[in-house]
Amino acid sequence: MIKRLFFTVILCVASVFLLAQTDSLYLLLPQFSNPFYDTFSRNYIGSTAAGRGYTGVSILGGLDNALLNPAAVLPDSALVFVEMNIKPSLEADGYPLYANYTSPVPIGLFGLSFPLENKFSFGVLYNLPKSITLDDYSFFINQGADLIQRFPVYNLHQATALFAFHNGPLHLGLDIHNQLHYIDDPIYLRSYERIRDSKYHLRIQPGIIYQFGPANIGFSMMPATKFGWNLKCANYDFIMPLWLTGGIEFVKPEFTIATEAEWEQTSDICNSFADRFTFKAGFEKRKDNTVYRFGYHFTSNVYSGMIHLEQNVVNPDTSNAWNTVPQAVFIEDNTQHSLTAGLSYRFKSGILNLSAMQVILGDVKKTQINLSLSCYLNYIFRKKEVQFNE
Question: pTM for this one?
Fold first, then answer.
Protein backbone atom coordinates (compact mmCIF):
# COMPACT_ATOMS: atom_id res chain seq x y z
CA MET A 1 0.00 0.00 0.00
CA ILE A 2 2.83 2.41 0.92
CA LYS A 3 4.62 1.64 -2.35
CA ARG A 4 1.45 2.32 -4.37
CA LEU A 5 0.86 5.60 -2.54
CA PHE A 6 4.47 6.63 -3.10
CA PHE A 7 4.20 5.83 -6.82
CA THR A 8 0.97 7.84 -7.12
CA VAL A 9 2.54 10.88 -5.43
CA ILE A 10 5.63 10.66 -7.68
CA LEU A 11 3.41 10.43 -10.79
CA CYS A 12 1.39 13.43 -9.65
CA VAL A 13 4.52 15.52 -9.11
CA ALA A 14 5.91 14.41 -12.47
CA SER A 15 2.70 15.34 -14.29
CA VAL A 16 2.69 18.80 -12.69
CA PHE A 17 6.33 19.26 -13.73
CA LEU A 18 5.62 18.17 -17.31
CA LEU A 19 2.61 20.46 -17.51
CA ALA A 20 4.83 23.34 -16.49
CA GLN A 21 7.56 22.45 -19.01
CA THR A 22 5.55 21.48 -22.09
CA ASP A 23 2.45 22.51 -23.95
CA SER A 24 -0.64 20.76 -22.63
CA LEU A 25 -4.15 20.50 -23.95
CA TYR A 26 -7.56 21.02 -22.41
CA LEU A 27 -9.93 18.63 -24.19
CA LEU A 28 -12.91 19.96 -26.12
CA LEU A 29 -14.53 16.52 -26.53
CA PRO A 30 -15.12 13.71 -24.02
CA GLN A 31 -11.71 12.12 -23.50
CA PHE A 32 -11.81 8.85 -25.43
CA SER A 33 -13.85 10.26 -28.32
CA ASN A 34 -10.88 12.43 -29.34
CA PRO A 35 -9.24 11.42 -32.66
CA PHE A 36 -5.80 10.67 -31.17
CA TYR A 37 -7.35 7.62 -29.46
CA ASP A 38 -8.27 6.21 -32.90
CA THR A 39 -4.91 4.42 -32.81
CA PHE A 40 -6.80 1.82 -30.78
CA SER A 41 -10.49 2.78 -30.82
CA ARG A 42 -11.06 2.73 -34.59
CA ASN A 43 -12.37 -0.53 -36.00
CA TYR A 44 -11.45 -1.17 -39.63
CA ILE A 45 -14.74 -2.77 -40.61
CA GLY A 46 -14.88 -4.86 -43.76
CA SER A 47 -12.71 -7.96 -43.85
CA THR A 48 -12.01 -7.88 -47.58
CA ALA A 49 -10.89 -4.23 -47.46
CA ALA A 50 -8.88 -4.81 -44.28
CA GLY A 51 -6.89 -7.56 -46.01
CA ARG A 52 -5.75 -5.25 -48.83
CA GLY A 53 -4.66 -2.20 -46.82
CA TYR A 54 -8.25 -1.13 -46.13
CA THR A 55 -8.74 -0.08 -49.75
CA GLY A 56 -12.22 -0.23 -51.26
CA VAL A 57 -13.45 3.22 -52.26
CA SER A 58 -13.09 2.32 -55.95
CA ILE A 59 -13.71 -1.45 -55.72
CA LEU A 60 -17.14 -2.85 -56.57
CA GLY A 61 -18.13 -5.62 -54.19
CA GLY A 62 -20.30 -6.64 -51.27
CA LEU A 63 -21.81 -5.08 -48.19
CA ASP A 64 -18.50 -4.85 -46.34
CA ASN A 65 -17.48 -2.06 -48.77
CA ALA A 66 -20.45 0.07 -47.71
CA LEU A 67 -18.61 2.17 -45.12
CA LEU A 68 -15.82 3.07 -47.56
CA ASN A 69 -18.12 3.98 -50.45
CA PRO A 70 -21.86 3.24 -50.74
CA ALA A 71 -21.54 3.26 -54.54
CA ALA A 72 -19.29 0.19 -54.27
CA VAL A 73 -22.08 -2.12 -53.06
CA LEU A 74 -23.09 -4.20 -56.07
CA PRO A 75 -24.56 -7.53 -54.89
CA ASP A 76 -25.42 -10.12 -57.51
CA SER A 77 -28.15 -11.55 -55.23
CA ALA A 78 -29.58 -11.09 -51.75
CA LEU A 79 -26.89 -11.55 -49.10
CA VAL A 80 -26.77 -11.61 -45.32
CA PHE A 81 -23.41 -10.59 -43.85
CA VAL A 82 -21.92 -10.90 -40.36
CA GLU A 83 -18.43 -9.91 -39.21
CA MET A 84 -16.41 -10.23 -36.03
CA ASN A 85 -13.62 -7.73 -35.20
CA ILE A 86 -11.08 -8.83 -32.61
CA LYS A 87 -8.59 -6.38 -31.07
CA PRO A 88 -6.22 -7.80 -28.42
CA SER A 89 -5.72 -5.53 -25.42
CA LEU A 90 -2.82 -3.05 -25.27
CA GLU A 91 -1.06 -1.58 -22.28
CA ALA A 92 -2.14 2.01 -21.60
CA ASP A 93 0.84 4.10 -20.47
CA GLY A 94 0.80 7.17 -18.26
CA TYR A 95 -1.92 6.25 -15.76
CA PRO A 96 -1.35 6.03 -11.98
CA LEU A 97 -1.65 2.23 -11.88
CA TYR A 98 -1.38 -0.51 -14.51
CA ALA A 99 -4.10 -0.22 -17.18
CA ASN A 100 -5.06 -1.68 -20.56
CA TYR A 101 -7.03 -0.54 -23.57
CA THR A 102 -9.56 -3.23 -24.50
CA SER A 103 -12.43 -3.72 -26.94
CA PRO A 104 -14.68 -6.40 -25.44
CA VAL A 105 -17.46 -6.15 -28.08
CA PRO A 106 -16.40 -8.38 -31.02
CA ILE A 107 -19.33 -7.70 -33.36
CA GLY A 108 -18.19 -5.33 -36.10
CA LEU A 109 -20.93 -5.57 -38.73
CA PHE A 110 -24.24 -7.31 -39.36
CA GLY A 111 -26.39 -6.56 -42.37
CA LEU A 112 -28.40 -7.45 -45.43
CA SER A 113 -28.02 -6.30 -49.05
CA PHE A 114 -29.86 -7.12 -52.25
CA PRO A 115 -30.29 -5.84 -55.81
CA LEU A 116 -33.48 -4.07 -56.89
CA GLU A 117 -34.26 -4.76 -60.55
CA ASN A 118 -31.13 -4.20 -62.67
CA LYS A 119 -29.87 -0.77 -61.64
CA PHE A 120 -30.42 -0.39 -57.91
CA SER A 121 -28.94 -1.85 -54.73
CA PHE A 122 -30.18 -1.53 -51.17
CA GLY A 123 -28.71 -2.49 -47.82
CA VAL A 124 -29.17 -2.12 -44.08
CA LEU A 125 -26.44 -2.79 -41.56
CA TYR A 126 -25.38 -2.33 -37.97
CA ASN A 127 -21.70 -1.52 -37.44
CA LEU A 128 -19.33 -0.40 -34.69
CA PRO A 129 -16.79 2.08 -36.13
CA LYS A 130 -15.15 2.86 -32.76
CA SER A 131 -14.84 0.99 -29.47
CA ILE A 132 -12.45 1.52 -26.56
CA THR A 133 -12.47 0.66 -22.86
CA LEU A 134 -9.82 1.67 -20.33
CA ASP A 135 -9.40 -1.22 -17.91
CA ASP A 136 -8.97 0.56 -15.60
CA TYR A 137 -8.25 4.10 -14.31
CA SER A 138 -7.42 3.72 -10.60
CA PHE A 139 -5.79 5.96 -8.01
CA PHE A 140 -5.50 6.29 -4.22
CA ILE A 141 -6.85 9.17 -2.18
CA ASN A 142 -6.87 10.03 1.54
CA GLN A 143 -3.21 9.04 1.97
CA GLY A 144 -3.80 5.64 0.42
CA ALA A 145 -6.82 4.74 2.52
CA ASP A 146 -9.29 4.67 -0.41
CA LEU A 147 -8.99 3.41 -3.97
CA ILE A 148 -11.02 5.08 -6.72
CA GLN A 149 -11.63 2.99 -9.85
CA ARG A 150 -13.08 3.99 -13.21
CA PHE A 151 -13.73 1.83 -16.28
CA PRO A 152 -14.24 4.43 -19.03
CA VAL A 153 -16.01 3.28 -22.22
CA TYR A 154 -16.59 5.03 -25.52
CA ASN A 155 -18.45 3.22 -28.31
CA LEU A 156 -19.75 4.61 -31.58
CA HIS A 157 -22.71 2.48 -32.69
CA GLN A 158 -24.06 2.98 -36.18
CA ALA A 159 -27.18 1.80 -38.02
CA THR A 160 -26.76 2.47 -41.74
CA ALA A 161 -29.16 2.42 -44.65
CA LEU A 162 -27.60 2.54 -48.12
CA PHE A 163 -28.94 3.13 -51.60
CA ALA A 164 -26.96 2.68 -54.81
CA PHE A 165 -27.66 3.31 -58.49
CA HIS A 166 -25.73 1.53 -61.26
CA ASN A 167 -25.86 2.55 -64.90
CA GLY A 168 -23.11 1.15 -67.10
CA PRO A 169 -19.76 2.55 -65.93
CA LEU A 170 -21.41 4.99 -63.48
CA HIS A 171 -22.18 3.99 -59.89
CA LEU A 172 -23.72 6.37 -57.33
CA GLY A 173 -24.49 5.67 -53.69
CA LEU A 174 -25.63 7.20 -50.42
CA ASP A 175 -25.13 6.02 -46.84
CA ILE A 176 -27.43 7.34 -44.12
CA HIS A 177 -25.64 6.76 -40.81
CA ASN A 178 -27.73 6.80 -37.64
CA GLN A 179 -25.04 7.18 -35.00
CA LEU A 180 -25.28 6.58 -31.27
CA HIS A 181 -22.31 7.90 -29.28
CA TYR A 182 -22.19 5.97 -25.98
CA ILE A 183 -20.14 6.90 -22.91
CA ASP A 184 -19.93 4.97 -19.66
CA ASP A 185 -18.01 5.80 -16.47
CA PRO A 186 -15.83 8.61 -17.94
CA ILE A 187 -12.92 10.12 -16.01
CA TYR A 188 -13.83 13.36 -14.23
CA LEU A 189 -11.58 14.55 -11.45
CA ARG A 190 -13.28 15.94 -8.33
CA SER A 191 -16.32 13.75 -8.89
CA TYR A 192 -17.33 10.39 -7.39
CA GLU A 193 -20.35 10.08 -9.66
CA ARG A 194 -20.46 7.40 -12.33
CA ILE A 195 -21.98 8.73 -15.54
CA ARG A 196 -23.61 6.83 -18.38
CA ASP A 197 -25.02 8.68 -21.36
CA SER A 198 -25.61 8.44 -25.11
CA LYS A 199 -26.27 10.88 -27.93
CA TYR A 200 -27.94 10.32 -31.30
CA HIS A 201 -26.56 11.99 -34.41
CA LEU A 202 -27.25 11.70 -38.15
CA ARG A 203 -24.54 11.74 -40.83
CA ILE A 204 -24.75 11.20 -44.58
CA GLN A 205 -22.09 9.82 -46.91
CA PRO A 206 -22.46 10.10 -50.70
CA GLY A 207 -20.14 8.25 -53.05
CA ILE A 208 -19.35 7.71 -56.73
CA ILE A 209 -17.39 5.20 -58.83
CA TYR A 210 -16.69 5.50 -62.54
CA GLN A 211 -15.18 2.73 -64.66
CA PHE A 212 -12.64 3.50 -67.40
CA GLY A 213 -11.97 0.14 -69.00
CA PRO A 214 -9.70 -1.78 -66.58
CA ALA A 215 -9.53 1.18 -64.15
CA ASN A 216 -12.08 2.34 -61.57
CA ILE A 217 -11.99 5.74 -59.91
CA GLY A 218 -13.91 6.24 -56.68
CA PHE A 219 -14.68 9.07 -54.28
CA SER A 220 -16.68 9.41 -51.07
CA MET A 221 -17.07 12.01 -48.31
CA MET A 222 -18.87 12.95 -45.11
CA PRO A 223 -19.48 16.67 -44.49
CA ALA A 224 -18.65 18.21 -41.12
CA THR A 225 -21.46 18.17 -38.56
CA LYS A 226 -21.88 19.43 -34.99
CA PHE A 227 -24.10 18.69 -32.03
CA GLY A 228 -24.28 19.62 -28.36
CA TRP A 229 -23.78 17.07 -25.60
CA ASN A 230 -24.48 18.05 -22.02
CA LEU A 231 -23.14 15.62 -19.44
CA LYS A 232 -23.52 15.99 -15.70
CA CYS A 233 -19.97 17.19 -15.15
CA ALA A 234 -19.28 19.11 -18.38
CA ASN A 235 -20.87 20.40 -21.60
CA TYR A 236 -19.47 19.87 -25.11
CA ASP A 237 -19.88 21.16 -28.64
CA PHE A 238 -19.20 17.85 -30.37
CA ILE A 239 -17.65 18.15 -33.85
CA MET A 240 -17.56 15.41 -36.48
CA PRO A 241 -15.01 16.75 -38.98
CA LEU A 242 -15.08 16.75 -42.76
CA TRP A 243 -13.83 13.43 -44.19
CA LEU A 244 -12.76 12.86 -47.82
CA THR A 245 -11.46 9.73 -49.53
CA GLY A 246 -10.59 8.84 -53.11
CA GLY A 247 -8.71 6.18 -55.01
CA ILE A 248 -8.08 4.23 -58.17
CA GLU A 249 -8.23 0.51 -58.87
CA PHE A 250 -6.74 -1.48 -61.76
CA VAL A 251 -8.57 -4.73 -62.47
CA LYS A 252 -7.31 -7.74 -64.41
CA PRO A 253 -8.96 -11.17 -64.62
CA GLU A 254 -6.58 -12.67 -62.05
CA PHE A 255 -5.55 -9.73 -59.85
CA THR A 256 -6.45 -6.24 -58.60
CA ILE A 257 -4.23 -3.34 -57.51
CA ALA A 258 -5.64 -0.37 -55.59
CA THR A 259 -4.26 2.85 -54.09
CA GLU A 260 -6.23 5.37 -52.03
CA ALA A 261 -5.87 8.44 -49.83
CA GLU A 262 -8.01 9.90 -47.03
CA TRP A 263 -8.06 13.33 -45.44
CA GLU A 264 -9.92 14.25 -42.27
CA GLN A 265 -10.08 17.85 -41.05
CA THR A 266 -9.41 17.04 -37.39
CA SER A 267 -7.98 20.55 -36.90
CA ASP A 268 -11.63 21.69 -36.95
CA ILE A 269 -12.06 20.03 -33.54
CA CYS A 270 -9.14 21.85 -31.94
CA ASN A 271 -6.47 24.26 -33.20
CA SER A 272 -3.79 22.10 -31.58
CA PHE A 273 -4.73 19.13 -33.77
CA ALA A 274 -3.19 18.42 -37.16
CA ASP A 275 -5.39 17.19 -39.99
CA ARG A 276 -5.20 13.43 -40.42
CA PHE A 277 -3.87 12.01 -43.69
CA THR A 278 -4.14 8.32 -44.60
CA PHE A 279 -2.50 6.47 -47.48
CA LYS A 280 -3.43 2.91 -48.47
CA ALA A 281 -2.30 0.39 -51.05
CA GLY A 282 -3.63 -3.09 -51.67
CA PHE A 283 -3.26 -6.11 -53.91
CA GLU A 284 -5.41 -9.20 -54.38
CA LYS A 285 -4.84 -12.36 -56.40
CA ARG A 286 -7.68 -14.65 -57.49
CA LYS A 287 -7.18 -18.38 -57.98
CA ASP A 288 -10.16 -20.71 -58.42
CA ASN A 289 -12.45 -20.17 -55.41
CA THR A 290 -9.83 -18.39 -53.30
CA VAL A 291 -8.71 -14.76 -53.17
CA TYR A 292 -5.42 -13.77 -51.49
CA ARG A 293 -4.87 -10.21 -50.29
CA PHE A 294 -1.97 -8.05 -49.06
CA GLY A 295 -1.70 -4.36 -48.27
CA TYR A 296 -0.11 -1.38 -46.56
CA HIS A 297 -1.85 1.28 -44.45
CA PHE A 298 -0.47 4.58 -43.11
CA THR A 299 -2.09 7.17 -40.82
CA SER A 300 -0.50 10.45 -39.74
CA ASN A 301 -0.22 12.01 -36.30
CA VAL A 302 -3.08 14.19 -35.01
CA TYR A 303 -1.70 15.23 -31.62
CA SER A 304 0.94 14.04 -29.17
CA GLY A 305 1.76 15.61 -25.83
CA MET A 306 0.21 16.21 -22.44
CA ILE A 307 -3.56 16.43 -22.00
CA HIS A 308 -5.33 17.64 -18.87
CA LEU A 309 -7.71 15.08 -17.42
CA GLU A 310 -11.22 16.45 -17.39
CA GLN A 311 -12.56 18.12 -14.27
CA ASN A 312 -16.04 18.23 -12.83
CA VAL A 313 -16.89 21.87 -13.55
CA VAL A 314 -20.59 21.71 -12.61
CA ASN A 315 -20.48 20.67 -8.94
CA PRO A 316 -16.85 19.85 -8.08
CA ASP A 317 -15.76 18.20 -4.85
CA THR A 318 -13.33 20.73 -3.35
CA SER A 319 -11.87 18.48 -0.65
CA ASN A 320 -8.09 18.06 -0.32
CA ALA A 321 -8.41 14.35 -1.13
CA TRP A 322 -7.95 15.16 -4.83
CA ASN A 323 -4.76 17.18 -4.42
CA THR A 324 -2.45 14.18 -4.94
CA VAL A 325 -4.32 12.80 -7.96
CA PRO A 326 -2.39 13.09 -11.27
CA GLN A 327 -3.90 15.87 -13.35
CA ALA A 328 -2.66 14.87 -16.83
CA VAL A 329 -1.57 12.00 -19.06
CA PHE A 330 0.78 11.89 -22.03
CA ILE A 331 -0.57 11.03 -25.50
CA GLU A 332 1.90 9.13 -27.66
CA ASP A 333 2.54 9.87 -31.32
CA ASN A 334 -0.42 8.62 -33.38
CA THR A 335 1.52 7.79 -36.56
CA GLN A 336 0.96 4.17 -37.60
CA HIS A 337 2.37 2.04 -40.43
CA SER A 338 0.48 -1.23 -40.84
CA LEU A 339 0.81 -4.35 -42.96
CA THR A 340 -2.31 -6.32 -43.82
CA ALA A 341 -3.15 -9.75 -45.22
CA GLY A 342 -6.32 -11.70 -45.89
CA LEU A 343 -8.08 -14.34 -47.92
CA SER A 344 -11.57 -15.28 -49.06
CA TYR A 345 -13.00 -18.65 -49.95
CA ARG A 346 -16.15 -18.90 -52.05
CA PHE A 347 -18.35 -21.95 -51.54
CA LYS A 348 -21.78 -22.93 -52.80
CA SER A 349 -23.86 -20.92 -50.33
CA GLY A 350 -21.59 -17.96 -49.57
CA ILE A 351 -18.13 -16.52 -48.93
CA LEU A 352 -15.84 -16.84 -45.90
CA ASN A 353 -13.37 -13.97 -45.32
CA LEU A 354 -10.40 -13.61 -42.96
CA SER A 355 -8.03 -10.66 -42.56
CA ALA A 356 -5.40 -9.28 -40.19
CA MET A 357 -3.91 -5.80 -39.71
CA GLN A 358 -0.73 -5.28 -37.70
CA VAL A 359 0.95 -1.98 -36.84
CA ILE A 360 4.67 -2.51 -37.51
CA LEU A 361 5.88 1.07 -36.97
CA GLY A 362 4.31 3.39 -34.40
CA ASP A 363 3.99 3.87 -30.67
CA VAL A 364 0.65 2.03 -30.49
CA LYS A 365 1.17 -1.50 -31.88
CA LYS A 366 -2.46 -2.40 -32.51
CA THR A 367 -3.52 -5.76 -33.95
CA GLN A 368 -6.92 -6.34 -35.54
CA ILE A 369 -8.36 -9.61 -36.87
CA ASN A 370 -11.56 -9.71 -38.93
CA LEU A 371 -13.61 -12.83 -39.64
CA SER A 372 -16.76 -12.58 -41.73
CA LEU A 373 -19.31 -14.75 -43.47
CA SER A 374 -21.75 -13.81 -46.23
CA CYS A 375 -24.54 -16.18 -47.22
CA TYR A 376 -26.78 -16.17 -50.29
CA LEU A 377 -30.37 -16.00 -49.11
CA ASN A 378 -31.76 -17.53 -52.31
CA TYR A 379 -29.64 -20.65 -51.73
CA ILE A 380 -30.82 -20.94 -48.13
CA PHE A 381 -34.50 -20.54 -49.03
CA ARG A 382 -34.15 -22.87 -52.02
CA LYS A 383 -32.63 -25.53 -49.80
CA LYS A 384 -35.45 -25.22 -47.29
CA GLU A 385 -38.00 -25.45 -50.10
CA VAL A 386 -36.39 -28.64 -51.45
CA GLN A 387 -36.37 -30.20 -47.98
CA PHE A 388 -40.04 -29.27 -47.52
CA ASN A 389 -41.00 -30.82 -50.87
CA GLU A 390 -39.17 -34.01 -50.02
Answer: 0.90
